[in-house]
Amino acid sequence: MKRTSWMIAVALTCFQFAGYAHAEPTHAGPSIWQGSGMVFGKDGRETTGFTIELRRTAVDERSTETKGTVVLGNGGTIPVYQRMTESDKGAGFRLDTNRGKGGGYCLGAGLCESYEDAGNGQAFATTIVVDGPDKLRLLVIELDHGQAVRYISQTLTRKS
């Protein structure tokens, strides 16, 4: 379960508000997001569920920080942290988390992609779908030396 716990924490921060930055300006006030998700093995079978609560705040005109907590099905908790910085040109962004660095692009129509390198051949590719100003869906693919080893799906809703 320890590896799964670490993987969920990485996935939740690498995806979080990268794409959403283009639906909500970084200078907007703080927002709280809640949601739930499921982890799937590479065979597509469910392995564990989780819930999450995140607080997003502006750092400056181009950067936001997201801090929160994941609650696993067994009751364990994992703190999460991410800093997202929009590029000068507006479509791309950089990610800095306590596990690694990455970035991505928004491709229009509420669709964004991100990638985070966690080191030692571990990485996370994330598809972010913005379903409106108050709802996000994400699919995170955990990679081990370029091979998919796990999938994490989740839905987040803005609470304030």
Describe it.
This protein has 160 residues and is mostly beta strands. It has a single domain, classed as Lipocalin, CATH 2.40.128.20. The protein is 9% helix and 61% strand. It is built from one helix and ten strands; from the N terminus they run αββββββββββ. It has a ten-stranded antiparallel beta barrel with strand order 1-2-3-4-5-6-7-8-9-10. β7 and β8 form a beta hairpin. The longest helix is centred in the first third of the chain and has 14 residues. 35% of the residues are buried.
Blueprint of the fold:
Blueprint: H1 2-15, E1 31-41, E2 46-58, E3 63-72, E4 77-86, E5 92-97, E6 101-106, E7 111-119, E8 122-132, E9 135-144, E10 147-158
Antiparallel strand pairs: 1-2, 1-10, 2-3, 3-4, 4-5, 5-6, 6-7, 7-8, 8-9, 9-10
Order of the strands making up the biggest sheet:
1-2-3-4-5-6-7-8-9-10
Q: Which series of helices and strands comes N to C?
A: HEEEEEEEEEE
| Amount of helix | under 10%
SS class: mainly beta
Low-confidence stretches: 13-27
The number of domains: 1
Biggest sheet character:
10 strands, antiparallel, barrel
Beta-sheet strand percentage? over 45%
| Alpha-carbon Rg, integer | 14 Å
Mean pLDDT: 84
- What name does CATH use for the topology? Lipocalin
Estimate the global geometry from the Cα principal axes.
Answer: globular
Distance between the termini: 32 Å
Number of helices: 1
Name the CATH homologous superfamily.
Calycin beta-barrel core domain
